């Protein structure tokens, strides 16, 4: 198998996660089943990178054993251990769409927006637009993350737990500064 043309399912399973040396940016093929609202299958160039999702107040987003995402203070030397794998592709209007894969023990989880809620799913099949986020509001180097799935909601925070919010809720968007590791 060509190590630079892996399917999304193979890459998400972690089965081939060590195929390419970590210093190279890999390009894989993504099958998007509900491609931005269309009912057709679309193939898009897709890149995979590791990053740390850091908030403007220096907290790191990570997955917890009860399958939710929280932001927490982590010492600088441990921050790189809390990385996420970011699956990116350029969609309509040159927007960059990103899906975030968190690892907990030996399983992989993706935050998804379903019914105006943020859920964390152990992903096994081709993703749909509910898995993807794009950049929203900007404040300096930091930006909010907005879901691609309708209705578009942004990532927010209640206490330490990452949730979703809309323009009609009182919780402000959570601003992230993506720290790329590769």
Order of helices and strands: HEEEEHEEEEEEEEE
Work out the helicity level: under 10%
Approximate strand percentage: over 45%
> What CATH architecture label applies?
Trefoil
Domain module tally: 1
Name of the level-1 CATH class: Mainly Beta
Using DSSP, what is the number of strands? 13
On the 0 to 100 scale, the average pLDDT is 75
The rough form would be described as: globular
Report the CATH topology name.
Answer: Trefoil (Acidic Fibroblast Growth Factor, subunit A)
Distance between the termini: 24 Å
Based on CA atoms alone, the radius of gyration comes out at 16 Å
Question: Mind summarizing the main beta sheet?
Answer: 9 strands, antiparallel
State the low-pLDDT regions, or none.
1-8, 10-42
SSE-based structural type? mainly beta
Tally of helical segments: 2
Task: Kindly describe this structure.
With 182 residues, this protein is mainly β. The chain has one domain (8-180): Trefoil (Trefoil (Acidic Fibroblast Growth Factor, subunit A)). It has 2 helices and 13 strands, in the order αββββαβββββββββ. Strands 1, 2, 5, 6, 7, 8, 9, 10 and 13 form a 9-stranded antiparallel sheet that branches. Strands 3-4 form a two-stranded antiparallel sheet. It has a two-stranded antiparallel sheet with strand order 11-12. The longest helix has 6 residues, at 8-13. The model is unreliable at 1-8 and 10-42 (pLDDT under 50).
Structural topology:
Layout: H1 8-13, E1 26-32, E2 42-55, E3 60-64, E4 68-72, H2 76-79, E5 84-90, E6 96-104, E7 107-114, E8 117-122, E9 133-139, E10 142-147, E11 154-158, E12 161-165, E13 175-180
Antiparallel strand pairs: 1-2, 2-5, 2-13, 3-4, 5-6, 6-7, 7-8, 9-10, 10-13, 11-12
